[in-house]
Write a structure and sequence with these properties.
Blueprint: E1 2-10, E2 13-20, E3 28-40, H1 52-57, E4 59-65, H2 72-77, H3 82-95, H4 99-128, H5 133-156, H6 158-163, H7 168-198, H8 204-223, H9 234-252, E5 258-263, H10 266-295, H11 300-329, E6 335-341, E7 344-355, H12 363-371, E8 384-396, H13 397-401, E9 411-418, E10 430-437, E11 441-448, E12 451-461, E13 464-475, E14 478-487
Antiparallel strand pairs: 1-2, 2-9, 3-8, 3-12, 4-9, 5-6, 6-7, 7-8, 10-11, 12-13, 13-14
Helix pairs in contact: 3-4, 4-5, 4-7, 5-7, 5-8, 7-8, 7-9, 10-11
Length: 488
């Protein structure tokens, strides 16, 4: 299974989220992603103003394991649930604090927090999508009961550690987990509260129950000496936000994969450069031998021939090298990436960036744009510069399964592209326009000036392709919206 989606990350950054799940009946599953980005010529983005290195400076990518799937109530009651694994690791580290048991204890805390975060988000989505008040009340009650049970069971685990008088260093990961869990649930509770209070059918009774959960947890944080967000406490809130960044990294560190990048096609590039050097040397030597045979050594024609052949040799070498490397660059990627976890390579990834001729785009991409033009004038489609960003990913199912006793579905890759460079030469965000006014004859109104950046995303899994067409609407002040226009 493979899916992709594009959304706004911040004012100047697009986020492409890839979800890639390798097949279980195959050792390796291949994925490829081609992203065609159509840029209006008026913003002047081309090979001379925005290079390959500029693109990669504005690109950031994180790869992480997909969180194992548990419903919220399964965390509490399910056989081999995260809380059960957690309890076993607490009992082991409390009685035998070896390097391995401490590592497993920290791993289980982090995985529990990551699974809880995903489960909370899914449960709240279920509640939002419920079709009746009865169903929403049932799901809210189940959510309320599950959260209370998770709080109680996790915090009871502290007794296992304190009973055996473990060191403060061993106790610290539990405290980090408790603090992060408290803020995580509070954040999701507020999301749920907004749904219950602002939906089409306002549900005051369910909202009161969630509000009670929020209030009790804030009181708990005060009793545990955890900081809380408060109105008009600027310094305290700033420090707390930084603290939450640290706790988030602690909780999710077991899911993030490391990557080692290297240039792709280096060997072939060196061979092509050697061929270019050989061709130029053949030319120079042939000229030298020919003039030497005809005019002899130490003659003026032979001397002139050597100088000219040397000049032409360098030019031939550079031309041949440029031609061969340029032709081969279309066959290779800019860089190759090994995807690692605990020194195990679970997959490889290649990526490249190029400007391409609009005449060379696939028929399906052209058709999607022609069927959904920005305006009725189809000829405007010919006035775009075109970027192609492509990836090829190969994942090893066997290596992925070896990473954890949890079932890992696959990987998520989050690609963030900052497009602030695209906005340097955009016009002012607003233009004054005159419109009729009965009192003064006319009045000035500010009209927003926007630009349309189109992106067609092709996602392939084992050679089966799907297409998604997005329109990014932006102006000089940032990205305004990302609209999904069509799927194929």
């Amino acid at each position: 299974m493979a899916s992709a989606d594009i959304k706004i990350h911040d004012k100047f950054t697009l986020e492409i989220k890839l979800r890639l799940e390798p097949l279980r009946d195959q050792k390796g599953t291949s994925f490829s992603i081609n992203s065609w980005i159509f840029l209006p010529k008026s913003i002047d983005i081309n090979q001379h103003t925005f290079s390959k290195s500029d693109f990669y400076k504005n690109l950031k990518s994180n790869i992480r394991l997909i969180t194992p799937v548990f419903n919220l109530h399964e965390i509490v009651h399910f056989e081999n649930s995260p809380l059960q694994y957690l309890t076993k690791s607490f009992e082991t580290v409390a009685t035998d604090a070896t390097k391995r048991s401490i590592s497993e204890y920290k791993y289980n805390i982090r995985m529990f927090l990551a699974i809880l975060k995903s489960s909370l988000r899914n449960e709240i989505r279920f509640i939002k999508e419920s079709e009746s008040k009865e169903e929403r009340d049932f799901l809210t009650d189940r959510y309320y009961t599950s959260v209370n049970s998770i709080f109680a069971q996790y915090r009871k685990l502290e007794n296992i550690l304190t009973k055996h008088l473990v060191t403060p260093e061993i106790l610290k990961p539990f405290t980090f987990g408790d603090e992060f869990m408290s803020y995580l649930v509070e954040k999701q509770n507020f999301h749920l509260l907004k749904t219950l209070l602002n939906g089409e059918e306002k549900d005051d009774l369910a909202a009161k129950k969630i509000q009670n959960l929020i209030d009790r947890e804030r009181e708990y944080k005060k009793s545990a000496n955890y900081a809380i967000f408060e109105k008009n406490k600027t310094k305290q809130n700033r420090h707390l936000l930084s603290r939450l960044g640290f706790l988030k990294k602690f909780a999710e560190s077991e899911l993030y994969l490391t990557t080692l990048k290297q240039r792709d096609g280096v060997f072939i590039e060196q061979i092509s450069m050697s061929i270019a050097a050989g061709l130029s040397m053949i030319f120079a030597t042939a000229i030298a031998f020919g003039f030497q045979q005809k005019f002899g050594n130490l003659t003026m024609p032979f001397f002139v021939a050597l100088v000219v052949s040397y000049i032409l040799k360098d030019r031939i070498k550079e031309f041949a090298r440029y031609y061969l490397v340029h032709k081969l660059s279309n066959k290779f990627f800019d860089q190759k990436i090994n995807i690692n976890m605990d020194d195990k390579i679970i997959g490889t990834e290649k990526e490249s960036f190029d400007y391409i001729d609009p005449k060379k785009i696939p028929e399906m991409v052209s058709r999607l744009r022609k069927e959904n033009p920005v305006s009725e004038d189809i000829n405007t489609l010919r006035n775009d510069n075109l970027i192609l960003y492509r990836k090829m990913i190969l994942l090893n199912r066997e290596k992925l399964d070896e990473l954890s006793f949890y079932e890992i579905p696959g990987i998520n890759e989050i690609i963030r592209l900052n497009i602030s460079n695209f906005m340097f030469k955009m016009d002012n965000a607003y233009f004054p326009i005159s419109i009729p006014n009965e009192e003064n004859g006319y009045e000035i109104t500010q009209v927003e000036k926007v630009y349309f950046l189109d992106m067609v995303l092709q996602l392939n899994m084992n050679e089966v392709a799907t297409y998604s067409y997005y329109r990014i609407i932006a102006n000089r002040e940032g990205i305004l919206s990302v609209e999904k226009i069509a799927d194929q």
